[in-house]
Design goal:
two-stranded antiparallel sheet; 11 helices; 2 domains; 1% strand; 2 strands; mainly alpha
Length: 356
């Protein structure tokens, strides 16, 4: 009875400070002392966060909620949250305010990415390229928040909205580059395919970036500019839509040529898979583009079109990097490499004797 009571009291006692500290260190280890696997996962989280902010931003604009919170950084002049009255419906206020809250959560993810990149030391040394790419992410999110404030305070000026979106495009590119660089070494890039195919892949990336910029102009000219009464580009909708479609056809031709060139050469299997994936995304994206145009630009379908553009951007970037190799990532220096020179000098003779 007495023994049972004592054991019950011990089980009910709160955890000690030492156990809490150990648990906290274990939880923080993937960020403060990241392995190659945890760094890769954290970098992937950065890619997902950067893509997510583009999709939620598009949802704000396409749902006509761009001025749901007409002030910044507070939602209204009298409320930091989506309360009170602002001339917009409650749904529109919470869509816009929810996007601001999500930006805060994504900022936390970007800080985790930056800290992990700073603490990551493959081969025993910090990688400056990864540190720079890591810290670009929280810096980009802060810049996004500031430009978002300018967008709101200028009443959704279409130029600032386009700048806001294209900064997201650049931030997503930095996230993808970090994810790729965190899985490879620092050797000089060695081409895995012919030079013309790498140039063609770079051209695809450049034209996709132009297509994304043209898409912001189309949206800023048409009926889904973020709010019914906001300013728009003074351009003919049919003309900018046709230009956007022409850029899409150019990308289709470039990707067809790239995939054909890869198919009849000897590319890495991953590059070939990415090439087919990019071609499939382009064909689906083109079909959605024509359907949305001939059905009067339904907001939900336009949002799916934006999601497709984000996936195309990620895939085009990954394909470009899959066409070259920078050696394997060396997570730790082998013990033999750090041995004294005298010991290393005697090693070959001993090894030769063993072989004999």
């Amino acid at each position: 009875m007495l023994t049972d009571s004592a054991s019950g009291s011990a089980a009910a006692s709160p955890p000690s400070r030492a156990s809490i500290t150990r648990a906290a260190r274990k939880l923080a280890a993937p960020v403060l002392a990241p392995s190659a696997a945890s760094m890769r996962r954290i970098a992937l989280a950065g890619v997902v966060a950067s893509a997510g902010i583009m999709m939620t931003g598009a949802a704000v604009r396409l749902s006509q909620s761009g001025l749901g919170c007409p002030d910044w950084p507070a939602c209204t002049a009298h409320s930091i949250v989506a309360g009170g009255t602002s001339g917009a419906t409650l749904v529109h206020r919470w869509i816009e305010f929810g996007n601001r809250l999500l930006t805060g959560a994504i900022l936390v993810v970007s800080v985790i990415v930056a800290v992990a990149a700073w603490r990551f030391s493959p081969g025993g040394g910090r990688r400056r390229d990864l540190v720079l790419l890591g810290f670009l992410q929280p810096a980009g999110i802060v810049a996004q928040a500031v430009i978002g404030g300018v967008v709101v305070l200028t009443g959704l000026d279409p130029v600032w909205v386009s700048v806001h979106f294209m900064l997201s495009v650049a931030l997503l590119a930095a996230s993808v580059v970090l994810y790729v660089r965190a899985t490879e070494g620092t050797a000089p890039a060695r081409s895995l395919v012919r030079r013309d195919l790498r140039l063609l892949a770079a051209a695809v990336v450049a034209v996709v970036a132009v297509m994304l910029a043209a898409g912001t102009v189309v949206t800023g000219t048409g009926p889904l500019a973020g709010e019914p009464g906001v300013a728009r580009y003074h351009l003919p909708l049919e003309g900018v839509t046709q230009l956007h479609a022409d850029i899409g056809w150019l990308i289709t031709g470039l990707v067809l040529a790239l995939v054909a060139g890869l198919r009849f050469s000897d590319p890495p299997p991953r590059a070939m898979r990415l090439g087919w994936a990019l071609l499939g995304l382009i064909l689906v994206q083109g079909s959605i583009g024509y359907i949305q145009y001939f059905t009067g630009l339904p907001a939900g379908l336009v949002w799916v079109h934006v999601v497709g553009a984000v996936l195309i951007w990620i895939t085009a970037l990954r394909l470009l990097f899959a066409l070259r190799d920078r050696g394997p990532l060396i997570e730790r220096i082998p013990a033999r490499a750090s041995a004294p020179a005298s010991a290393r000098a005697g090693a070959p003779a001993r090894a030769q004797g063993q072989d004999a």
